[in-house]
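Let's practice the habit of predicting before peeking. Look at the sequence and jot down your guess about where helices and strands might fall. Then scroll down.
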Amino acid sequence: MSAAVDEDGGGVGGGQVPGLDEPAWRREALRVSDRYLREVVVDFGLCPWAEHAITGGEVRRRVVLDGAPTVDAALAFIDELAGAGAAAAVGMLIFPRAALAPPAFDRYTEQVRRADRERCRAAGRKDFVMAAFHPETSSSFETPYQLVSFLRRAPDPMIQLVRAESLDHVRAARPSLSDDIARQNFATVTARGAAALEAILRDIRRDRDGSYAALAASGPPPAVTAATPRG
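Done guessing? Here is the structure:
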């Protein structure tokens, strides 16, 4: 989205990948990310504070092209978010070529979370609240809380980072925020029809797969398969 500040991912996450058109990969990863943010998060009104950050230009995104991303790659981006202050309320680390299935990507996210938490304790600052998104998460739901996984079917594996202070302020005024949003989203999706949302998610995924297939013709293809993350 034009309101997001997109960071140059060059040199982050292991350096250049031989034979890869890195600018094109980053451009396409951001383009399909735009579709997900606009057509799913904003158009369905799924997260009021995230929508405010998106439309207000308080979101920063970084595309990491490694197939097996390192914890250090994520921490470097987190440092940049921390240094940006309130201007970067939300960060999104996007991994279009990550060879990690959902369980492995969850473990990678937890490694990043723990590493950042340890650093924050040592530095005396608050950490970032993280959530893992993945295109292969649940494709069905029956309850408001199962819907959370369904909605996290971003076109690429992604870690969403939210400044803890931002959430603390919101939760202080509205302690039941998470439950309220879950119930509201369930009502919204049910009213508009789960099939309509599913169709949008599938269309974005088809767009992503077709675009990446064309890019992969001249370099190593993306993969979303089980692998062991490197720390």
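How did you do? The longest helix spans residues 194-216.
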